[in-house]
Predict the structure.
Amino acid sequence: MPPDFRPGIALHEPDADEPEVQYDYVPIKERPEADRPREKLLTRGPAVLSDAELVGLVFGSGTRVGGRSVSAVELAQALIGAYGSLAKLARRDANQVAKATKGVGPAKAAQLAAVFEIGRRVEAAPPEDRVQVRSPADVAAAYGPRLRDLNREVFVVLHLNTANVVTAEYTLTTGGLAASIVEPRQVFERAILEHAASVVCLHNHPSGNPEPSREDVAITKQLCEAGKVLGIPVHDHVIIAGRGYTSLAERGLMG
């Protein structure tokens, strides 16, 4: 528990999978005006705001818990303190947060999820929205922020033109917590219709382990063989795991 936290009212029912959320009650009207997040942002810029103040601005309004008013910033501070950090909170499913935390219902949980997703997309967006794939690092830089925090495995296919610029992207499958099933026909059906010169495949490992599984290697070899027959080569299969990645092309596992 952070040093400036004191025990307060728990904001959620006990749950084995969710942390205990408590808050330190300080009425917003008792804060100096210069310390109120909206005024602080407008006069000094967003960089000076704490994580809790930024989340409080996203919430916009507070709530009532146990008959007492809790400001948006106090609610945010308690939430971040319970989950450990803003980054850990960003990896939580919105439905989990909404169900487990009193005061953070579906609306506030959806607001948080939307802001976190905006951040991921901004981080991933290349200049002028053009992704040119020169190396596996380019793929990881562009798509890692979108995939690394997902708690389910997804398989994404990128279509490239002759200059190795991504012309299309789509999620082929969304698997369970551990695996996705991919068939070559699914990968190349759209690639043929959209005249892709080549493709790059990528998927995430929610476990954070970047090592390819036997299934990953087997699927990759099947895709490479199919690509050779169709004249649409598979340049790489990139695994996103946390902030790291593995390129099966760099490993020599493409077939």
